[in-house]
Amino acid sequence: MTKLTSIQGHIAIVTGAGGGLSREYALLLASYGVKVVVNDYSGSLSGQRGTISHAQTVINEIKAKGGEAIADGHDISVQSEVQELMQDTLAAYRTIHILVNNAGTASKASSHDNVNV
């Protein structure tokens, strides 16, 4: 794989990165030398707060390959938590270069309740 040196050392936030495609994005970015904020809420539809255990698993994978990453458990469906995620990232790294906003969010309402025609 050819390395993209132009993004080496950049800072990325990847939402929903505890699993699925977001996990793969986080791992790929880290392989290019990007410092990754691995965001994963791991909550439930009932509103029960999750843990960052999925994010920590991804962090461990990144670090095992020589990369740098930190875990984040903010719920990106809540505006105030998005602001906290940004503030925490800026406190840790002073800047943000890349955002992969790929987390799935859901609500208790049925899907047809969320559609306006």
**CATH architectural group:** 3-Layer(aba) Sandwich
What's the end-to-end separation, in Å? Answer: 46 Å
Please work out how many helical segments DSSP would assign.
3
If you consult CATH, what is the topology?
Rossmann fold
CATH class value: Alpha Beta
Which range best describes the helical content: under 10%, 10-25%, 25-40%, 40-55%, 55-70% or over 70%? 25-40%
Instruction: Indicate the radius of gyration in whole angstroms.
Output: 15 Å
Portion of residues in beta strands equals: 15-25%
CATH homologous superfamily caption = NAD(P)-binding Rossmann-like Domain
* Domain module count: 1
Kindly state the mean pLDDT as a whole number? 85
* Main sheet: strand order: 3-2-1-4
Biggest sheet record:
4 strands, parallel
Overall, the morphology is: globular
What are the key terms here?
117 residues, alpha/beta, 15% strand, four-stranded parallel sheet, 33% helix, single chain, Rossmann fold
Report on the structure:
- The chain is of the alpha/beta class.
- The protein has a single domain, classed as Rossmann fold (3-Layer(aba) Sandwich), CATH 3.40.50.720.
- It contains 3 helices and 4 strands.
- The protein has helices spanning 20-31, 53-64, 79-93, and strands spanning 11-15, 35-39, 69-72, 98-101.
- It has a 4-stranded parallel beta sheet, with helices on both faces.
- Helix 1 (20-31) links the parallel strand 1 (11-15) and strand 2 (35-39).
- The chain starts with 10 loop residues before the first strand and ends in a 16-residue tail after the last strand.
